[in-house]
Design a protein that fits this description.
The complex is a heterodimer. By secondary structure, chain A is an alpha/beta fold. Chain A is built from 10 helices and 12 strands. In chain B, strand 1 and strand 2 form a beta hairpin. Classes of the chains: A alpha/beta, B alpha/beta. Chain B: One of its GO terms (molecular function) is ATP binding. Chain B: InterPro entries: AAA+_ATPase, ABC_Ni/Peptide_Import, ABC_transporter-like_ATP-bd, ABC_transporter-like_CS, Oligopep_ABC_C, P-loop_NTPase.
Chain lengths: 323, 324
């Protein structure tokens, strides 16, 4: 298998406003030394709660957010060192689907124009070829050709997400970054979009960087999963290992918190693993493990030293007491 | 035993630019004391309108309660005066809304807001009300409650704000607590905390809970009984186990099968094609017919009624005819 994306020690810092004119500048590290690999044709899920840095990681990896250090090797080429024009050309290989299909489509443009626009910008083909491609993409994502000239508001949420997907596929990308692509949709519609994404992955050989807070969705779409907490990857594993034998207490807590049909009130279900509180502030992260304050297993060492990612079987886990 | 809250044949209509549309059509539900009823369905199915009807919060006009009754301890809430409803709201029935940020007042401290609710319904001094408010904040698991009571909503995290909403809702020990998608704006670990809290509150106060959600997983963990709604009607109504283990209505089956489940690796999810039809386009037949794999000619012309055809009540011709 060939490596498509190799992210090494990616760090993203945001400058905070100064307290006063001469006050020292403070920084917020939204992503802290994140590394992961994505093979061609595979899907990597990045899971975490709001504020964990999952979206910032993905945006930095495709250079939509400025990163402060690290490398992003896309087919061996470091995207972070490209000139703007080189990066613009590269963008045809890397496309994006956003969370909210209501705000990510121009309300004043006809959907055929929306889907065609990436080809216009990249100067691909003749006008007739572009239009033929739009029709082909419409069919591919399950829309009808007679809907080509409608406006986004004439579509339902699920259909709009299909339009977003068609637009993302226009330039024949290698990598599709999906940022919570179904969390704004009703459950019944979620299934339609997830099945579509799974079909496109196998038919077109696409790779996904799939961001979600929903472990069930990630399990359905992804081959590998990385769990993030406060800007760091705390566990990274093939899907099966992660769901069958989660190593990090935070992963275990996420799995125990996600509602499941297997847990019945009538059978006296009581959540075995309860974690309290909220994640700490990224402005002043704790010295030791960021999860220590909420962790049932935390000991003195957890509050003092940050655990590094270490291999346990197929899993990489950043915890002093994994398992 | 008569139920604590009993809704019979409730019909709610709204005046819109498409003419009068029926948002709720002969909805019947009941909740017993100490029980959790899950109301489940996609957006636009009438779940929230049902809740707002019970709270007497349907904007009239354009809305209108066109028929039926809502009996709370035998008293019909559709007939009581606005003054009486104001007395019941908060003290007998209380509601937790979806978005805690927009349902709290940003310019008052959370302690003041809870104390206000207490003073509206109980004859206590302001000092006592504030003490009660702090005790409630402690009860819902907010750390250092006496300090937090002086915080404004924007100083709290989403989970804490929802805890404040719960504290306010249970401040007068309501008999019925309606939770309208109380965790959609929250992260999963916080959602789990809120669900656990609601269960504790129910044990302590013995309140009946109506949990409105679109998540069958939440239903499984929280509910004793389930009403599945579609396009303004209840289409299946039974114990949580019956609905989850043996869903009858094709829509209920679809809702359960379309969830990406943590417990299994499935290659393809069951889909429900299409979307909920707009209410002004509902015809004479079953509202689900266009999305249904078991559609028959009869489904297009005759609305199925919620009747027990054997196992438990479901509104479906295919179930009635044994075609499923």
């Amino acid at each position: 298998m060939s490596l498509l994306l190799d992210v090494q020690d990616l760090t993203v810092r945001f400058a905070l406003p100064r307290a006063g004119l001469f006050a020292p500048r403070h920084y917020l590290e939204a992503v802290r030394q994140v590394s992961f690999q994505l093979e061609a044709g595979k899907a990597l899920g990045i899971v975490g709660e709001s504020g964990s840095g999952k979206t910032t990681t993905a945006m930095a990896a495709i250079r939509l957010t400025e990163s402060s250090s690290g490398k992003v090797l896309f087919e061996g080429q470091d995207l972070l060192t490209l000139t703007d024009e080189q990066m613009r050309q590269r963008r045809r290989d890397v496309q994006l689907i956003f969370q909210d299909p209501y705000s990510s489509l121009n309300p004043r443009a006809r959907v055929a124009d929306i889907v065609r626009e990436p080809m216009d910008l990249m100067d691909i083909g003749t006008m007739a070829e572009r239009q033929a491609r739009v029709v082909e993409l419409f069919k591919l994502v399950g829309l009808r050709p007679d809907q080509l000239n409608l406006f986004p508001h004439q579509f339902s949420g699920g259909q709009r997400q299909r339009i977003s997907i068609a637009r993302a596929l226009t330039t024949n990308p290698r990598l599709l970054v999906c940022d919570e692509p179904v969390s704004a949709l009703d459950v019944a519609i979620q299934a339609q979009i997830l099945n579509l994404l799974a079909r496109l992955k196998s038919e077109l050989g696409l790779s996904y960087l799939f961001i979600s807070h929903d472990l069930g969705v990630v399990r359905h779409v992804c081959d590998d999963v990385a769990v993030m907490y406060l800007g760091k990857i705390v566990e990274k594993a093939p899907k099966k290992a992660l769901f069958d034998a989660p190593q990090h207490p935070y992963t275990q807590a996420l799995l125990s918190a996600a509602p499941s049909l297997a847990r019945r009130k009538s059978r006296g279900y009581v959540r075995p693993l309860k974690i309290s509180g909220d994640p700490p502030s990224p402005i002043n992260p704790p010295k030791g493990c960021a999860f220590a304050d909420r962790c049932p297993k935390a000991q003195e060492v957890c509050r003092l030293t940050q655990p590094a990612l270490q291999a346990v079987g197929d899993t990489d886990v950043a915890c002093h007491f994994p398992g | 035993m008569s139920a604590l809250l009993q809704i019979n044949d409730l019909r709610v209509t709204f005046r819109t630019r498409y003419g009068e549309v029926t948002a709720l059509d002969s909805v019947s539900l009941h909740v017993n004391a100490g029980e959790t009823l899950g109301v489940v369905g996609e957006s636009g199915c009438g779940k929230s309108i049902t809740a707002l009807s019970v709270m007497g919060l349907i904007p009239q006009p354009p809305g209108k309660i066109a028929g039926g009754e809502i009996l709370l301890n035998g008293e019909d809430l559709t007939k009581v005066s606005e003054a009486r409803m104001r007395g019941l709201r908060g003290s007998e029935v209380a509601m937790i809304f979806q978005e805690p940020m927009t349902s709290l007042n940003p310019v008052f401290t959370v302690g003041d807001q809870i104390a206000e609710a207490i003073m509206l319904h109980q004859k206590v001094s302001a000092d006592q009300a504030m003490k009660d408010a702090i005790a409630l904040l402690d009860r819902v698991g907010i750390p250092s409650p006496d300090r937090r009571a002086r915080d404004f909503p924007h100083q709290l995290s989403g989970g804490m704000r929802q805890r404040v909403m719960i504290a306010m809702a249970v401040s007068c020990r309501p008999k019925v607590l309606i939770a309208d998608e109380p965790t959609t704006a929250l992260d999963v670990t916080v959602q789990a905390q809120i669900f656990d809290l609601l269960n504790e509150i129910q044990r302590d106060f013995g309140a009946a809970i109506v949990l409105i959600t679109h998540d069958m997983g939440a239903i499984s963990e929280m509910a004793d009984r389930v009403a599945v709604m579609y396009a303004g009607r209840v289409i299946e109504d039974a114990s949580a186990d019956d609905v989850l283990d043996m869903p009858l209505h094709p829509y209920a089956r679809g809702l359960i099968n379309c969830i990406p489940n943590l417990g299994r690796d499935d290659d393809s999810l069951a889909e429900i094609p299409g979307v909920v039809p707009p209410l002004h386009l509902l015809g004479a037949g079953c509202a689900f017919a266009d999305r249904c794999a078991h559609k028959a000619p009869r489904c297009a012309v005759e609305k199925p009624l919620l009747i027990n055809h054997g196992h438990h009540p479901a509104a479906c011709h295919a179930v009635e005819e044994g075609r499923l």
